[in-house]
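Subgroup meeting minutes
Present: P.N., E.W., G.H.
Scribe: E.W.

1. P.N. recapped why we're keeping a running log of single-chain structure predictions: easier to compare across weeks, and new members can see raw inputs and outputs side by side.
2. G.H. added today's entry (420 aa).
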Amino acid sequence: MSFQQGLSGLNATSKNLEVIGNNVANSNTFGAKASRAEFADMYANAMSGAGANSVGIGVSLASVSQQFTQGNITVTDSPMDLAINGGGFFQVTDGQNPALYSRNGQFKVDREGYIVNNDGLQLVGYPADATGVILPGNASALRLPTAGIEPAATSEIELEMNLDARMGVTAPTAGPAIDFGDPTTYNSATSISVYDALGQDVALTYYFQKAAANTWNVFVTANGTPINGTPAAPVASATLTFPATGGAPTAPVGPVSIDIPATTATNGSTTLPITGVQLDMDGARQYGAPFGVTNLSQNGYAPGQITGVSIESNGIVMARYSNGQNQPAGQIELATFRNPQGLQPLGGNVWARTSTSGDPIVGVPGEGNLGVLQAGALEESNVDLTGELVAMMTAQRVYQANAQTIRTQDQVLQTLVQLR
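Output recorded in log:
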């Protein structure tokens, strides 16, 4: 008599309980994937093919297969937490060995500026140059910039407004073309700050003076000083001419180039000249409605220091600066595999590629069959705790049944031995 079948059943069921126990233990591990014990029957004559009525000799553990289904996504309070909604793995590295792969998006920034997980492994992605241009194809450990963003001098100004067609002519008939201290010599005014090459702000004020029907002079001062002419004899920087219907101006055609001279700021410093600034007033209109500015923008900015980081759904790591600017600091690269079940689990929420899994197929989030990222969220384990508890009870009964077959074999053997 053989105890092989019952013994193999005990061993297999014990392994099944180990798998179930590991699933239950990791039910709260972010990014963890449930495993399933898969079994195969055994026959002594399986190789020769003889014996149509042969009895099996038990069961064996064929494989422990991981189930890479999507886990639930839960929102967190950390902007560095990341969840992959769809396929793919994060790539992490220690800088020396081949990259490892993870679904756990609990990332932080270390003291050197690298984005790392709890084991200190660095997140892999594409770096960005000093101007924020992503450099694809050169994946490496992502590192946030420590230096501030450089200032940019203003080169374009866009002005969109309505000039009240009901206003009377205010251009003086004698003396200076305008007196900035006398509001009767102009109709309306508005202001905006522009920046020189050092990032120093310059207060530009625009004065709109009706010179004749459908004709408006535009005077500009920088920190109170006219940019054209002299303080005693200002000169208009542009003249707007409107059609009788008050639509888009017929002149000037396209942007007007203005030069802003060096000025003295309110704190006593001297600003640098800003030359060749393109002033776009194509959005100006002249209707019988009160003066109002609907858009006044320029493209310069002061220097700034990094104040925070946000990560977009396509994996771009966006650095936020104190001057209100945003600039890409890199882009996360994801990897996927033809056979993710062939990955080797190493613990610490990471897997290593094997010949069974195949080589990684890399790309940015949202590309191909790669999922998108959700910042401030984590992917929960895909373990079905209720199902695991039911499977545990079933495995317990199977273990008892296999133990019973050994007990019965023992009783039969004892009866045989006691024959006289």
